[in-house]
Amino acid sequence: MPPVEAVLFDLDDTLFDHRHSSRASLEALRLRYTHFQQSTLDELELVRRDILEEIHLQVLAGSISLHEARITRMQRLFAQFDQPISREIAEQIALENQAVYQSSRQAVQGAISLLAALRPHVKIGIVSNNLLQEQLDKLNFCKLAPLIDVLVVSEEVGIAKPDPRIFQVALERLDCSPSQAVMVGDSWTTDIVGATRMGIRAIWLNRYGTPCPDPSLATEIISLEPTDALVSLLLGTLRRWRC
Q1: Whether the model pTM is above 0.85
Q2: Exposure check for the chain: N or C terminus, fewer CB within 10 A?
């Protein structure tokens, strides 16, 4: 195996704890509007996730702005509970909800320590399906930005994971080949499948116990800790890994 020259990471729910902030904002909605209280937070999260995934694809395609997407998502969420709201009300609630999300932002546990430990040995890149400014704000807020060498975002390059070409962009910017890189991500479809199609060794971060679709395709980890063992795994010096 060639020496590892670069480690690529997904951002949302790999280095940045998007789910933590999302659930915080959702719980704030649930506490304020009684019709949401007929559902548990987990049930409400599933409803909003389906709405978010559909509309986020439109954001990535450039057919709707992020601001309009947030308004539409809020209207759709209320409509799911037979509580239609006007665009004006949805906009106000969306702004309030986004403020809760912003104030709840944090890095995934172990992320900062891991990046700091890797940095003397390899170059570090992020490959993300999102909007450039949105991801820059997260990196700066969570103090991850100084630990990153390259940020490749789908909005910027016009290609989204799992298309192997977005990984190729990252590799070119990091000046390394697929065999010299490792990809760490939480999404099996976009991160693991996309990276392995490019010939990049993949590490699947599975923090929530999802069944592994194909153990032969990636090494599974359940957290970004302990730092030393994970650094060894990423650099290819750890011979055996146990979750």
Answers
A1: yes
A2: N
